[in-house]
Design a protein that fits this description.
There is one protein chain. By secondary structure, the chain is α/β, with parallel strands linked by helices. The chain folds into three domains: 11-105, NAD(P)-binding Rossmann-like Domain (Rossmann fold, 3-Layer(aba) Sandwich); 164-277, Tetrapyrrole methylase, N-terminal domain (Cobalt-precorrin-4 Transmethylase, domain 1); 285-397, Methyltransferase, Cobalt-precorrin-4 Transmethylase, Domain 2. It is built from eleven helices and 19 strands. The chain has helices at residues 19-30, 75-84, 125-138, 143-155, 164-167, 185-193, 205-210, 229-240, 260-269, 338-345, 373-380; strands spanning 11-15, 34-39, 53-55, 67-70, 91-94, 107-111, 114-118, 169-174, 196-199, 214-217, 245-250, 273-277, 301-306, 308-309, 313-314, 327-332, 354-359, 367-372, 387-391. Strand 17 and strand 18 form a beta hairpin. The chain is elongated. Bound molecules: S-adenosylmethionine.
Length: 398
């Protein structure tokens, strides 16, 4: 029979300085336990975890602590300790000798104030570790912060039993450029597992058809402006506060010109759990039309830019990159600015410099227009939104 308890402020004597002692020293040090080591030899790594080391043969008089760990593997030391227990009061652990132990080590999880110990009662530390690692996988990422909040409230005499922040989770899901088959397996599994999905106008119908739970549109309202980011954050928080698993579907990759980081920050700061699931960006989806962003001897690098800056300002800073040899430039949100882009580009490159306008990439209504800087302005009028612009010699490979 054994009783799992947490012992506070204990002092420990660790005997031994080899690999087994090293493991124990690590555990003790990670748990901020005060301990000292007695051993005739000590591995240099052990010194990283313990400052109080006496290099000497173990003797009975060394036992001054209430807890003693024998990591020597020596029968002689174990016998001495067992004999000593008749006259001295201390709890003994002889590593790998459960029959000599007063207590066992547990496989531990330490997340701030959360302490989880898994024990096999000395039967199999490997099994205990396996179970510990399985438990780790299901722990919410925000557990430390939630416990911190609860502790602060408790210290003020408030008992807060609300577990919503542990139950709910936000997933920022990269939905890719539109073709549902380009969703990652993780994105698909997550979509199926959510209680509600928030999406905007760039999410394709094909992907929306996969969604089985409630769908909430957070994009442009008819005849009105797009929802402000703050409004979207509030909607997300509203659903998260109901203890739901909330999927925020974002086109392409959430962190490529998708304002994903702003959502991540707002939700994390509010104390909720967030997981980001990367998606295929429209910028790199050009592979699907056999357009390589890099190709040996033709393009050895590429850059991705937005032609649109905060406050509806145009960004043309990147145009100088067109001068770079063996380089491909991908521009998002550039179609409606094609006129300005073409004008500025003509200042730095030849009018025959290749450009592709690719609309609705990977979708049924995909359209590819191969053109040149000279004709970009006119051709842009024939293109549909959403579109990316690709500049560089690689365009001629399609
Ligand atoms: C707000 S940004 C979002 C980009 C997205 N996070 C990504 O990684 O693709 C929107 C711009 O992405 C590009 N875009 C998104 N989906 C597209 C698609 N299927 N075909 C072409 N361009 C697309 C367009 O330039 C559009 O204006």
């Amino acid at each position: 029979m054994s009783l799992p308890i947490l012992l506070k402020n204990q002092k420990v004597l660790l005997i031994g300085g080899g690999n087994v002692a090293l493991q124990k020293a690590k555990v003790l040090s990670e748990n901020e336990i005060e301990f000292r080591i007695v051993s005739k030899e000590v591995l240099p790594e052990v010194k990283e975890f313990c400052e109080n080391i006496e290099i000497k043969e173990f003797e009975e008089d060394d036992v001054k602590e209430n807890i003693v760990i024998d990591a020597t593997g020596s029968d002689e030391v174990a016998k001495k300790l067992l004999a000593l227990k008749k006259t001295k009061n201390f709890l003994l652990n002889v590593v790998d000798k459960p029959e000599f132990c007063d207590f066992y080590f547990m496989a531990l999880i330490n997340r701030g104030d959360l302490k989880i110990g898994v024990s096999s009662n000395g039967a199999s530390p490997s099994v205990a570790k396996f179970i510990r690692d399985e438990i780790k996988k299901i722990l919410p990422d925000n557990i430390e912060n939630v416990l911190k909040e609860k502790k602060e409230l408790r210290n003020k005499g408030i008992i807060d039993k609300d577990l919503t922040k542990l139950k709910s989770k936000l997933y920022l899901i990269g939905a890719g450029p539109g073709d549902a088959e380009l969703l990652t397996i993780k994105a698909l599994k997550t979509i199926k597992n959510c209680d509600v999905i928030l999406y905007d106008h760039l999410i394709s119908d094909e992907i929306l058809e996969i969604v089985e739970c409630d769908k909430v549109y957070v994009g442009k309202e008819k005849g009105k402006h797009s929802k402000k980011q703050e409004e979207i954050n509030e909607i997300i928080l509203d659903y998260a506060s109901k203890g739901l698993k909330v999927g925020r579907l974002k086109s392409g990759d959430p962190f490529i010109f998708g304002r994903g980081y702003e959502e991540l920050k707002a939700i994390t700061e509010a104390g909720f759990n967030v997981e980001v699931i990367p998606g295929i960006s429209s910028a790199t989806a050009v592979s699907s039309i056999n357009l390589p962003l890099t190709a040996r001897g033709i393009s050895s690098s590429f850059s991705v830019h937005s032609a649109h800056l905060r406050g509806n300002r145009i960004n043309l800073e990147w145009v100088d990159e067109l001068k770079k040899e063996n380089h491909t430039v991908v521009v998002l949100m550039g179609l409606s600015r094609a006129r300005h882009i073409a004008k500025k580009a003509l200042e730095v490159v030849d009018e025959n410099y290749p450009v592709a306008i690719i609309s609705n990439i990977t979708r049924k209504n995909q359209k590819i227009i191969k053109t040149t800087i000279k004709n970009l302005k006119e051709e842009a009028k024939n293109a549909d939104k959403p579109a990316i612009l690709v500049f560089g010699e690689v365009v001629n490979l399609v």
